[in-house]
Every structure is written in structure tokens, then in C-alpha cells.
Amino acid sequence: QVHLVESGGGLVQAGGSLRLSCSVSGGIARLLNMAWFRQAPGKQRELVAQITYGRKTEYIDSVKDRFTISIDNAKKTTFLQMNNLKPTDTGVYYCNGPGASYAWGQGTQVTVSS
After folding, report:
1. What is the C-alpha to C-alpha distance for residues 19 and 68, in angstroms, rounded to an integer?
2. Which of 94, 51, 93, 57 shows the shortest CA–CA distance to 73?
3. pLDDT (tens digit per residue) in 58-101
4. Contact 76, 23 (CB under 8 A)
């Protein structure tokens, strides 16, 4: 069974940066398709960024040119580099496969103050 552990969140001022990490264990020999989701207060969880075939990246419009998703297979970890953060980026961030086919981890809280 795949186990996901997110980390790296925190409180940051608008314009700041954070790098989220997601450690993946069990059931996957090589990471090729991963995604980051977020759930803002009072809203549904949404897909923010995904990477497929280990290199093709896609982002929602609101984070394009600010967020970068990547994979390090040596560490079995996927990352989300978030720059120029905005208060609207506040939420709990989760990693999963693009189809959300794995059990959810606990997520990591990102809070961006204005």
C-alpha cells in the first residue's frame, strides 16, 4: 500500500516562498505520475499541479509561473516549489497520484499572510 507523507508547510508573508515535500513509500517502484492538491478553508480539494511521464508538468492558471512540481526518484519524493505566494494560496496541501488513487496523507498547512 502506498503511504504519503507531506511536509514543508508553514506561515509565510505574501511574496514569500515555501518548498513542500511528499515522501512516497510502498507499492511504487518509480515515481512517474504525481500531483499536488490543496484544500482552502471552506472549499473543496482542488488539483494544483501534476507531473506525468516523469517530466510533463501542468498547473492551474492561478499558480502558473509561480509553482513548480518535480520528482526525485532517488529519494522517492515529489516536491512543490512555491514562489511569490499569495493569501489565496492558503490551505492544506496534499500529494497523490493525478487521479487521487492513493490513500490521502495528513497534508501540510500553508498559511500566507497579507
Report:
1. 9
2. 51
3. 999 999 999 999 999 999 999 999 999 999 999 999 999 999 98
4. yes
